[in-house]
Amino acid sequence: MIETPAAVRVSRILFVDDEQAVLSSLRRLLRNVAEPWCCHYATSADSALEMIASQPMDVVVSDVNMPGKTGFDLLCELRQLPETQDTPVLIITGGQDEDNKRRALDLGATDLLVKPVSLNTLLARIRNMLKLKEYQDEIKKRNQHLDTLVKIRTRELELSRLDLIWRLGKTAEKRDSNTGYHIFRVAHYCRILAVALGMSEKFCDQIFQTSPLHDIGKIGIPDKILLKPGGFDEGERRAMEAHCLIGAEILSQEIVPPLLGQPGAVASPEVDLSSENHFLNMAADIALCHHEHWDGSGYPRGIAGEAIPLAARICALADVFDALASARPYKEPLPLEQVLEMMRAGRGTQFDPVVFQCFEENLTQFVAVRNRLADGDNSFPPA
């Protein structure tokens, strides 16, 4: 081998043959080849695999007939390993057996030669496989770069969506009263409960992102009702309860932007809007059902038990806890023991008993969130 400039990439070639004389002959012949190659030699498939595990190879040249594991066995193992499944492999057979040729190619051999093999032919095939490896590496590099860009862009879109969701949630709250960090605390409470219930990571992320929209329907309630300082009469109460229906309608998948497909729209007419959107489904379920009660005494539909979507059952408890534990323009925050006493009275009637049990078991986390995101004083008032 000749010495190569430092800037030239040295390719690693592994030759595998059980006959030491064959490998020695290859060493002598390749010593005078003017290629930037670093050649390695193994006398068995197992020793070849050990060498590859310690130092990746750019090309593997293997004889077929070897004691123990054959060249076919080596080829199979290389193709099963993620790090070597694309490594070019040249199989050398000892005869014109068509079955061996077909088997080598079926198992994933990159190229095939039949003994006796001339040095020029061997070098030409290795050069071709190195060029193939170079192309493969470049494609992988570009794909990895594209994957990174996609992940960055996806994360940016997720953060933008979350920011927009929380801004929409705050918009609805601003029409009602100054509730500070209410929707942020509710989102964290919901995630705590979802995790405690053993829900999937996707569910936990979605409820964290959708629960801030639970009161989005309040933007459709007239100011004279929404901002009324005193109690409601029967008509006003029904109008106020309608915010659940309004919120569900706003978040329904049936709403299609009329400009979709027009110049400047975010999607083309070919986009399938009929496909299920789990994010919108959960947001709509929460908006519609977060005032339903476990015993059926809630509103707007009076449904009970597990007929109430789980996300709504979770958000209902989180919403009530925060409303009782936080200050409002019309009330002071209640001490923790009083909050718990009032909520325990609703276990099995207002609240799902399983969700409530998770709440009590994770109360420390609720208090930590409440204090970390408190609107004023950073602790519960004394009992």
UniProtKB/TrEMBL annotation:
The keyword Membrane does not apply. The modification 4-aspartylphosphate is found at residue 63. One of its GO terms (biological process) is phosphorelay signal transduction system. Pfam families: HD_5, Response_reg. Keywords: Phosphoprotein. The keyword Zinc does not apply. Residues 12-130 form the Response regulatory domain. Gene3D superfamilies: 3.40.50.2300, Hypothetical protein af1432. InterPro entries: CheY-like_superfamily, Cyclic_di-GMP/3'3'-cGAMP_PDE, HD/PDEase_dom, HD_GYP_dom, Sig_transdc_resp-reg_receiver. Residues 157-375 form the HD-GYP domain. This is Putative two-component system response regulator. It comes from Desulfuromonas thiophila. The lineage of its organism: Bacteria, Pseudomonadati, Thermodesulfobacteriota, Desulfuromonadia, Desulfuromonadales.
